[in-house]
Amino acid sequence: MFKALRRKAPPPVVEQRNILLSGKDITYTLKRSGYRRSIGLRIDDRGLTVNAPLRASEQWLHNVLLDKAAWVVDKLDDWQTRKAPSICWEDGARIPFRGEEFTLLLTPKRRGAAAQLHGEVLHVPVGAEAEAAAIEKAVTHWYRSEALQVFRECAEHFALQMNVVPREIKLSTARTQWGSCTAQGVVRLNWQLVKMPLHLIDYVVVHELAHLVEMNHSPAFWKVVESACPEYKRCRAELHGYGIAE
Questions:
Q1: What is the dihedral of CA 130, 136, 142, 145, to 10 degrees?
Q2: What value does the mean pLDDT take over residues 52-59?
Q3: Are residues 117 and 75 in the same domain?
Q4: CB atoms < 10 A from the CB of 154, how many?
Q5: What is the pLDDT of residue 85?
């Protein structure tokens, strides 16, 4: 007897397209996959992505997009308003930190020196003539260092309150999550969260620590969250406005 060989589905086919929806020219990414049986739409910080079966007809694609036109345009507009204004990496630039704004001050370059916050001014030792990339690198390094300290202190506070013991607190660079928690107790928090107001940092930390009690998003899980963060619904809604769902 011969065993039937399982045929591997071909790799996804990806292409960029344009379509007119509700009077707006929309650019989107079309991903065709042999694993899919239906057409799905996803909108995030990268725009609209349409996931479709490998042999989905053009008419089917067109009809789905026209049917969802109003939703697509509204969601894309919403994401556009969520985007934080880009930082002009230069002396005097304003940067967000723990929900407030601070000013960059470029100071003389010193080997091995790191950025330091003094009052409302972040001193960045890269030299007055530093290029934007060097300034951004130095500030990002400072952000990550501060983030780890803030997150660890926050986790220590709420872990005691919630009677849980996280194994480790780590930083993440995830594009779609503010945080995550493994079954082994490793909590990862997006370093960019340190730019947000402290009550939102608290909420994300509580959310991930609650997974040490309930590794799901059941009603029981949300009760654990509420026990440490009574305003979690408001925080959750506010956090969505920053562009990454939690």
A1: -140
A2: 93
A3: no
A4: 19
A5: 65
Task: Say how far apart CA 149 and CA 77 lie, in whole Å.
Answer: 35
Say how many domains are in the chain.
Answer: 2
Q: What is the token pair recorded at 35? A: 């694993």
**Claim to verify: residue 52 and residue 150 sit in the same structural domain:** no
Q: Record the pTM.
A: 0.69
pLDDT category at 84 given cuts 50, 70, 90 is low
195 DSSP assignment: G
* Structural tokens at position 44: 């995030």
* Rounded-to-integer distance, Cα 87 and Cα 138, Å: 14
For 95-133, the pLDDT digits (tens) are 999 999 999 999 999 888 999 999 999 999 999 999 999
d(CA 147, CA 153): 10
Where residue 61 falls (left for φ over 0; alpha for ψ -120 to 50; beta otherwise) is alpha
Q: How many C-beta atoms lie closer than 10 Å to residue 194's C-beta? A: 24
DSSP 211-244: TTT-SS-SHHHHHHHHHH-TTHHHHHHHHHTTT-
Give me the long-range contacts of 228-231 (CB less than 8 A, separation at least 24). 228/158, 228/161, 228/162, 229/202, 229/203, 231/199, 231/203
Strands 40-44 and 47-53: antiparallel
Residue 42 belongs to what domain range?
13-82
Evaluate whether residue 6 is within a structural domain.
no
